[in-house]
Amino acid sequence: MEDSVQTSPKSNPAEQENMVLSSDEMIEKSLEMFGWMEFMQCILVALAMFFDAQQSFITIYTDDYPTWHCTNLTTCTTSSDICKLPNSSWSWNGPSSKTIISQWGLECASNFITGLPQSSFFIGCLLGSFLLAALADTSLGRKNMLILSCLSMSITSTTIIFSTNVWIYSALKFLIGFWRSSIGTCVLVLLTEKVSTEWRFTVGIVEYFCFTLGYMSLPGIAYVNRNSSWKFLYVWTSVPAICYSVIACIFVTESPRWLLMQGRQQEAMAMHEGVSSEENGANNLNASLPNEPAKQRASIFQLYSSIAELFGKSWALKRMVAVMVLGLGIGMVYFGMPLAVGNLGFNIYLAVVFNALMEIPSCIATYFLENYKRRPSILAFSIGSGVCCVMCVVIGNGIKGVKVGLAMASFFSACTAYNVFLIYIIELFPTCVRNTTTSLVRQAIVFGCIFSPFLISAGRKNDLFSYVVFGIVIIMCSSLTLVFLPETKGIALCDTMDQQEKKETSMCEMGNKVNL
Predict the structure, then answer these.
(1) pTM, rounded to two decimals
(2) Is the pLDDT score of 17 beyond 50?
């Protein structure tokens, strides 16, 4: 028996590489079929973005500075400073509980206090992205992390109505941001890992469309409750999200790529049952994969092993830094412009509707950009967005309609750049670290958003602090980083860091041969 062990044949590196490539190709083959069941799975997963959008932008109405009117014309005029008037000489338009500003008497509070709740939300997103990101790559998986995040966010959102001051309110906004942080990442990763390269861009657009619908639903909900307390907005948005979490827990399936990476081949094969039956694709996939033992329960250090694996490669570290800087610039405009609609001096309900409507042509533009290279697309729309931001200040308040149009154009360009950018991130990194890298990029996006509420508050007096800053940041970040990143159009997804490295090395060698 000892001799037989010593003389057993060993697969050489070339054979192992061929096996890995064959495995990669078979996974793609098994995911090629996209029928109604797959479509319904994508819709069900993407619906989480509907509720994510509502919680991201709900402060446009709950934290708004409401209008007021004079009750004593002898001591009050419409141009008076409200902070210098006696309380008996003026009154809010509508109930005093309409927003947190009017309910807690924050009309004369500093920019720090009025911007604190939304900044706390983004700080929670930043911390949550760091702590929860690796869990979706290791122990919990995409599906469980998505459901946990959505359910926890919704429950916290219902408890926020019991806040008695801005400090408790800000603390709960922090928790909402913390739990919400991984929703977008899990949705995007789960969607793209469920389909082949051919459908990857299309399902990504489904996510953006659901996010758009959630954003567009806010003006309607707010208008219906315009004479009610801000607390009703949280109830109307959180209760349906709780119901969704229960439904998703029952019907949503896990990512087959993640299951294979975890050594859970039987579960992955069960999901592929019936796919490519004429060519026996599922059986071929099962035969092409190496037998791996089931993974044991991970320690606290193993849970975050994907971060160590990511930064263990110099090329991955450089790429990660570049995309995080790019994400900071795009995210500042993508989230900053909608939150700054109150500074346009326009009807706040219509302003949000117009902004939200820009997401629809943005999704359409993103769909048609599928056949174009990622880097030039992101660069063109990022620069266009930045130029429109700066032009908002150049035009000023003299021609209000033109300023609103430029703000909408800036948001449209930022949306399109953001949509393509998220797909680009998915294609840049392999399955083993994909959720981690996407979450880290979202951390960079959120980091820029932390300062947006303070810039927007200061921008009420001078647009230079909001629109000009937004424009300069997005132009600089996109121009300085995209030069160092590779093109990914039409490239199949890899599962391990070694596969990614080998594939890009071979592509570089082929490119050099073509140039010669």
Answers:
(1) 0.73
(2) no
